[in-house]
Every structure is written in structure tokens, then in C-alpha cells.
Design brief:
3-stranded antiparallel beta sheet, binds s-citryldethia Coenzyme A, mainly alpha, 18 helices, globular, 429 residues, single chain
């Protein structure tokens, strides 16, 4: 709390509400008593001005283009840390010492295999099913197999469910990819790091040995770090809302997967690469810029704009550098898609429409170029995003469950429907 208050005058009446201050970022007006005092609700579709919770996990300064995981800037973590260390940081609040990191990595490694009977779920899907449909189904089904970690009131069960989710998502996502290409599932290996294991499960085949390229593994690991958490975005808010009803953790993560799939959210990485391919050559960019500005055309520049960032998404900067490294390594000179992306970014950032609306590339603008160069089909991009965001969803879910102020989420509405009226018999309609 601060000693500041917010005064609200409605007609002849005045009301005061406490102002709360965080460690950094905007103050908030505590309006929990608003309805009781005034009989009114606030109105904020899309929650553009609403803080839905307290949190100490991730902070974004949209004007500065700054992203902190437990206070550490994302560019430093992407450069100096690695994904499982970032997972520890997000889950437990501080960077681990050597012993804690080794213990955490061992616990995750020991949970990477999926219950053998869950393999049958995959066979129920068409081979051309979208991987996100498969991942959403299989994650939800985990509640049917891991009964010993569904009691959200038991801290031990919450911990084991968290480790299982982080450990098994790469296996689940890789199996969705293998199923889509008609290749046999590849089991995880305990001698590989997280990113290398994922590449191994996706791209190795029984017929020959698979050499993991350390630069590609490092690029994958960095992509995981960049996507790990992002405050109260749509899918994290979905996980929190599902968790507020005491639903089991697997059901909550499955809800997050479903929400992330949308092209306005995590599905934008798939849509952005498809858009860059549709543009094809730099001479067609003006046509698409015009469409993005045309209010009568639903087309938007995918991978551009953000609810919070009104400056360059810091993740997009790291992603662009990584794209260049990966393409150089793979000897993909003058990748036409990257050329279109860079020219599109340059043109858009000079166009008043985008400048006035503070529309910049976001995390999804360049990630698809890297994943495509590594060999993933575009349909896998959002599933890879979900795999990375699982640690953020889990960390936010644990924080909410452990919050003494936890209440079931239940927003109200501004009702615009019919007033009370009597039933009319069909003969009189
Ligand atoms: C992610 O929230 C998160 O943190 C999400 C995320 C995470 O890590 O969890 O960062 C991941 O989802 C990134 C965003 C990926 N989505 C896309 O790239 C899809 C394209 N972007 C847009 O759909 C849009 O920018 C949103 C959804 C991301 C944000 O939309 P807002 O905040 O609701 O803004 P808005 O729709 O009200 O747009 C404001 C104006 C509008 O024009 P006017 O009405 O003022 O004339 O900007 C325009 C919009 O038409 N606009 C765009 C645009 N994005 C916004 N115009 C063209 N192309 C775009 N991409």
C-alpha cells in the first residue's frame, strides 16, 4: 500500500480507494471494494488497464522494451544462461548454485519419459492433425495417468506435477512431430541436455545415428529461454483462471496450450512465416503494408505489434541475431524469407501508420525463420512455443495457488441483453 488514495466522484457522492505500489512499474488502484461501495463495476474488455494479480515472476516495461525474469534482463539470460537454469529461476525465484542446478537438472531428466500407454492417444489422431490439437489433448490426458500429482493442495504433488510438465513437454511435442511425419517415436536420452534431447527426439531415426549440431542446440535453447514467461499474457491468464477453480495442473496447462494456439497470440509465429512466404519477394512488400493499414482488410502484419511493448520487443532483437547465426552456420546465404523480413521491418518502422501506433516486431517475427532453417514445419512452431512457455505457466500457476489471497476468478459484465419478459407460446410467435 502507499499513503496515496484515488478519489472517485459519482454524482454528489465521493469515494476513496487505496493506491498500491509494486517494486517497479505502474501503481494500481485497489478497487476490490468498488462494487460494494458504489454498486458499479469497472469496464475493461481485454484488460488493457487491469492488474489481475500480484506477481513477482516477470516484469515488462513496454515503453523501454525491457523484459525481466525475476529481475534479470532477458538479453543477459539469453546470452549467459541456459533454459533449465532459467526454469529454476522462474520457479524458485533465484539463480541456482551448482548443487541446486545439478539436482534440478537430474529431477527433470528423470521425468522425460511419457507413460507408455499414452502413446496410444497419438494413434487416435489423423496424421495431418495440427500438432497443437495433439499436444492440447495429450497434456490434458496426463491427468488420467499421473493421479499422484493432481492434488493441488499438496505442495509435494504440486512440485512433482511441475517437474513432470517441464520434463515431458519436449517428449510430447516431439512425438506429435514424429507422428505427423510417419516416423517412429524416439525416446528421450538422459545423457543429453534439454535442447539437444528435443532435437534428438525430433530428428533422429532408428536407421542411422543423429549428430546434434551444438550451434542449433544452442539456438533452440535460446528460443526456449526467450519464450519462457511473459507476465499475464492471454495464455498465462487462462492458466491462472483455470487454476483459480482448483482444477488439476495438467488441465490448466492444457487450457494454456489451447489459448496460445490463437494467431493473435502464440500462433503468430506460424502465421508470420506463412505471411513472409506469401509476400515472397521484397517488391511485394508495399502491397501487404497497404493491406495491413486497410481497415476493411482483416489482414495484419503477423509478428508485429504488442499489447504491452510500445517499443522493440527485446526478444525480437535476440531472435534476429540468432536467425543470422543459424543461417550463417547452415550456409543459407541470402535467405529470401529473412531478406523479406528485414525489408518489411525497415519499411514498416518508417511508415507513420506503424510509428504512430508504436507497432514493432515482436517475438514471433523472426522465430519462425530460425525454426524453419533448423528443419521444423511451420505447424510445429506454436507447439515449440507452448513447450517453452510451460515453465512460465507452471511458475505463475504455483504462485497463484500459493497466494493467500487466491479467489476463484469470476469477472462481471455490462449486460446489453433483453430485460425480463414472459415466455410466449409458439402459437403466438
Ligand atoms: C504474443 O501478451 C503477450 O505478452 C503475448 C506474447 C507472449 O510472450 O505471451 O508476447 C506473445 O502473442 C505476441 C503477439 C503475437 N501476435 C501477432 O503478432 C499478431 C499481430 N498483432 C496484432 O494482432 C496485435 O498487435 C496484438 C494482438 C498483438 C495486440 O493487439 P492490441 O494490443 O489489442 O492492439 P489493437 O489490436 O488495439 O491495435 C491497436 C492499433 C489498431 O489500429 P487502430 O484501431 O488504432 O487504427 O494498431 C493496429 C490495430 O489495427 N495494429 C495493427 C497490428 N497490430 C495492431 N495493424 C497492422 N498489423 C498489426 N500487426
Amino acid at each position: 500500500m502507499t499513503d496515496k488514495t484515488a478519489k472517485l466522484t459519482i454524482g454528489e457522492e465521493s469515494f476513496e480507494f487505496p493506491v498500491m505500489q509494486g517494486s517497479v512499474g505502474p501503481d494500481v488502484i485497489d478497487i476490490r471494494s468498488l462494487y460494494a461501495k458504489t454498486g458499479m463495476f469497472t469496464y475493461d474488455p481485454g484488460f488493457t488497464s487491469t492488474a489481475a494479480c500480484d506477481s513477482a515472476i516477470t516484469y515488462i516495461d513496454g515503453d523501454k522494451g525491457e523484459l525481466l525474469y525475476r529481475g534479470y534482463p532477458i538479453d543477459q539470460l539469453a546470452d549467459k544462461s541456459h533454459f533449465l537454469e532459467v526454469c529454476f529461476l522462474l520457479l524458485y525465484g533465484d539463480l541456482p548454485n551448482t548443487a541446486d542446478l545439478a539436482d534440478f537438472e537430474e529431477r527433470v531428466t528423470r521425468h522425460t519419459m511419457l507413460h507408455e500407454q499414452m502413446h496410444y492417444f497419438y494413434r487416435g489422431f489423423r496424421r495431418d492433425a495440427h500438432p497443437m490439437a495433439v499436444v492440447c489433448g495429450v497434456v490434458g490426458a496426463m491427468a488420467a495417468f499421473y493421479h499422484d500429482s493432481t492434488d493441488i493442495n499438496d505442495p509435494q504433488q504440486r512440485e512433482i506435477a511441475s517437474i513432470r510438465m517441464i520434463a515431458k513437454m519436449p517428449t510430447i511435442v516431439a512425438m506429435a512431430y514424429k507422428y505427423s511425419v510417419g516416423q517412429p517415436f524416439v525416446y528421450p536420452r538422459n545423457d543429453l541436455d534439454y535442447a539437444s534431447n528435443f532435437l534428438h527426439m525430433c530428428f533422429s531415426v532408428p536407421a542411422e545415428s543423429y549428430e546434434i549440431n551444438p550451434v542449433l542446440a544452442r539456438a533452440m535453447d535460446r528460443i526456449f529461454t526467450l519464450h519462457a514467461d511473459h507476465e499475464q499474457n492471454a495464455s498465462t491468464s487462462t492458466v491462472r483462471l483455470a487454476g483459480s477453480s482448483d482444477a488439476n495442473p495438467f488441465a490448466c496447462i492444457a487450457a494454456g496450450v489451447a489459448c496460445l494456439w490463437g494467431p493473435a497470440h502464440g500462433g503468430a509465429n506460424e502465421a508470420a512465416l506463412n505471411m513472409l512466404r506469401e509476400i515472397g519477394t521484397t517488391d511485394r512488400i508495399p502491397e501487404f503494408i497497404a493491406r495491413a493499414k486497410d481497415k476493411n482488410d482483416p489482414f495484419r502484419l503477423m509478428g508485429f505489434g504488442h499489447r504491452v511493448y510500445k517499443n522493440y520487443d527485446p526478444r525480437a532483437k535476440v531472435m534476429q541475431e540468432t536467425a543470422r547465426e543459424v543461417l550463417d552456420l547452415l550456409g543459407v546465404e541470402n535467405n529470401p524469407t529473412l531478406q523479406v523480413a528485414r525489408e518489411l521491418e525497415k519499411i514498416a518502422l518508417e511508415d507513420p501508420y506503424f510509428v504512430d501506433r508504436k507497432l514493432y516486431p515482436n517475438v514471433d517475427f523472426y522465430s519462425g525463420i530460425i525454426l524453419d532453417a533448423i528443419g521444423f514445419p511451420t505447424s510445429m512452431f506454436t507447439a515449440i512455443f507452448a513447450m517453452s512457455r510451460t515453465v512460465g505457466w507452471i511458475a505463475q500457476w504455483k504462485e497463484m495457488i500459493g497466494d493467500p489471497q487466491k479467489k476463484i476468478g469470476r469477472p462481471r459484465q455490462l449486460y446489453q441483453g433483453a430485460e425480463s419478459r414472459d415466455y410466449a407460446d409458439i402459437s403466438s410467435r
